[in-house]
């Protein structure tokens, strides 16, 4: 947005935090072209205020953003998709928060990537559509592996990441994927994973969210997958993922 007095963009609100005056907010947005933008919503916490209902977390909104001294300032906002199906449901809010947490860590200012907006929007809709906790787990895990793979952290599932041996039986986020039994001995945190586990991970990366919502896997399997996604993202994004921690504690 440098060099322009104002810009109009559609964006997803992926983070909110209080700043300056008691009722003002700083929002982190994922814009339609896939960039991160930190902006000020003046009066964003004011009950009944004109912006309050339009800057809710997870909302897709058309914004007009004026240039400020350091951050842009929202001057107009019109809700496009509030993702209302997420409201009032702790499990859905928790899952959507994981999606936005990963989105915040994988988008950057002045680095457009439209894929990031499109997949985040679809994942939030999938969180609304998921019929149960198991499918919510799958949506979060799939989004996490898809976005990190897009960013260059695709898990190696065919051969050992250290020696290239195709006889693999362990998985390590730290090593970047599968390991043979010999190499796994020297990698802390490597966990056993057979062919079915590799197939499930591959499916999460390659399947559409429509297909993922139709998958029927037991709660033990989906919990394992979302836990693995948590460790994978925390390792490669080098961040503590508090939304994941909360979701896994429910």
Provide a descriptive summary of the structure in words.
There is one protein chain. With 250 residues, the protein is of the alpha+beta class. 39% of the residues lie in helices and 20% in strands. The protein has helices spanning 90-106, 114-129, 133-150, 181-184, 195-206, 209-212, 219-237, 242-249, and strands at residues 6-18, 25-31, 36-41, 60-66, 72-81, 170-172, 177-179, 191-192. A five-stranded mixed β-barrel has the order 1-2-3-5-4. Strands 7-6-8 form a three-stranded antiparallel sheet. Strand 4 (60-66) and strand 5 form a beta hairpin. Helix 1 (90-106) packs antiparallel against helix 2 (114-129). The radius of gyration is 20 Å and the shape is elongated. The mean pLDDT is 94.
Quaternary: single chain
Strand order of the largest sheet: 1-2-3-5-4
Helix content: 25-40%
| Largest sheet geometry | 5 strands, mixed, barrel
Globally, the shape reads elongated
Rounded mean pLDDT is 94
Tally of helical runs? 8
Q: How many beta-strand runs?
A: 8
How much strand? 15-25%
Helix/sheet category: alpha+beta
First and last CA, distance: 40 Å
Cα-based radius of gyration, to the nearest Å = 20 Å
| Unreliable parts | none
Order of helices and strands: EEEEEHHHEEHEHHHH
Outline of this structure?
The radius of gyration is 20 Å and the shape is elongated.
Salient structural properties:
five-stranded mixed barrel; 250 residues; three-stranded antiparallel beta sheet; alpha+beta; single chain; 39% helix; 8 helices
